[in-house]
Amino acid sequence: MTPDRIAAVIDFLALADRLKHVERRGRTVGPDGAARQENSAEHCWNVALVALLLHGEVADPPELGHVLAMIAAHDLVEVEAGDTFAYDEAHVLTQAEREKAAADVVFARLPPDLGARMRALWEEFEEGETAAARFAMACDRAQGFLQGVIGTGHWRAEGVSEPQTYGRMDPARKVAPVFEALIATLYERARAGGMFAEPRP
Amino acid sequence: MTPDRIAAVIDFLALADRLKHVERRGRTVGPDGAARQENSAEHCWNVALVALLLHGEVADPPELGHVLAMIAAHDLVEVEAGDTFAYDEAHVLTQAEREKAAADVVFARLPPDLGARMRALWEEFEEGETAAARFAMACDRAQGFLQGVIGTGHWRAEGVSEPQTYGRMDPARKVAPVFEALIATLYERARAGGMFAEPRP
């Protein structure tokens, strides 16, 4: 590796460090019982752990290395674009455009071959058309939903009703029976805990 | 997946969530310029990103899925045992014993087959004898060292001199030329920034 290539990788990693400061809506509860927002770096690790635990549970699992690589890369554009709350409808409308502009900035920090590799992982995840991307998407959404349940529900505070979550969670449930079973159990717990807001009339 | 298996996986993931509250010594600097300790969940994602960027730079790279799985699992015992600062000599002496006891607790929360799989990944990382484990170790140590540099050096505040870091960093440097080049560059930056404490006479 040439000195320039080393310097570019260090520079990119310093930029990627910002993902530890991008807050998501889901909460994590510390040993003192206090809840704080989860950040996107923690989320990325947690999604990898979900993928690792569920990978052996699906028929014809996609290649694990490819799935975990996509998961490690899937939120990098947020260091420029920030996180978009899945239930903020106005913000979601501009998300693709904002993230594309962010990708142009973020991946350009890497040497071209590495930047192209990372960008291809991010694009595959976003397009969601391969089996690996669908598996990664289901892990991503299941983790976000789980975080809502173990963080004792940010939905009620945010005014998010159960039906508002279906558009996001139904595609994940359809990826494989294990996601259907896991997400159904999480819905049961969220309902039992009164974690959703009442649907708007 | 049976309901019991689903419940065990959810229970394990709720326990794993604690990794987001295990503080390491390295620091990360937020957009407001304030530094805080990095946590072990963020670290695990960051190590995966380092592995992804460097995997193509080594001759005969180990299988990426296996490396990334090991990285996702390598710090899970810290939810029971906490993080051990690499330069706290007394604490390091008891680390293996404390982490083994923690592993008995943590991995027992999973169904036996999944627990055995996760434990095997952790043990392979700890033993450091396979090519995949050595690659993962080098990524782990390079990331920790990088965090020291981009967090503007916790070593000085902790009284850690440059020679005290050699025992930890030399094995990583030897794994492949790319690690030697990356870590040498990080040492140059740490020295230029005056980030190490003076060696004790």
UniProtKB/TrEMBL annotation, chains A, B:
GO cellular component, as recorded: cytoplasm
Keyword Hydrolase: yes
Molecular function in Gene Ontology: 5'-deoxynucleotidase activity; metal ion binding
Coiled coil: none
Every HD domain range: 16-170
Sorted UniProt keywords: Hydrolase, Metal-binding
InterPro entries: HD_domain, YfbR/HDDC2
Recorded superkingdom: Bacteria
Record's protein name: Phosphohydrolase
Organism: Falsiroseomonas bella
